[in-house]
Amino acid sequence: MIDYLIFSKINGLAGKSVYLDSLGIFFAEYLGYFLVAILFLSLLKNSKKYWPMAVKGLISAFFARFGITELIRFLWNRSRPFVENGFDKLTTNQVNLLLNHPATSSFPSGHAAFYFGLSFIVYFYNKKLGILFLISSSLISISRVFVGVHWPSDVLAGAIVGIFSGWIVMKIFKK
After folding, report:
1. N or C: which end of the chain has fewer CB within 10 A?
2. Is the overall model pTM greater than 0.90, yes or no?
3. What separation in angstroms does the CA of 66 have from each of 10, 61, 85, 106, 149?
4. Is residue 108 reached through a cis peptide bond, with omega within 30 degrees of 0 on the bond before it?
């Protein structure tokens, strides 16, 4: 029930301002590309220092998104908020859906898992850049709720999966 209440508050802000909607769509769909671009630009600055960060960050992100997340989705299929059986039975309110998205399983959020997995590794190597990545990952995650494609618990679980994935990758490479 708390998941639904938080979703209603965040998603309820959508559809009221073209500027806020555009910002939400940008964060949800495109901000992640900028993070990956910044990761590769950091290689130009100091490739010797940042090469291990980029490799470990991408391993962590892909492991979180295509390993752990897909395993959880295989074991537990949760409907997205805009899917009829998942939301409309709780209330007569409609979801403010700002993105076209297939009605695939939503738990945990693959976007949150990917970008938090990447951000954890970046933070380990460069605190200042890592904070930028963590803030951006949070914006991506919250905006996925704002645009109507995830429940708040989806993005929270995705963030936990991503951080856990980063921790595992750091432990493996430490040996």
Report:
1. C
2. no
3. 27, 8, 26, 14, 19
4. yes
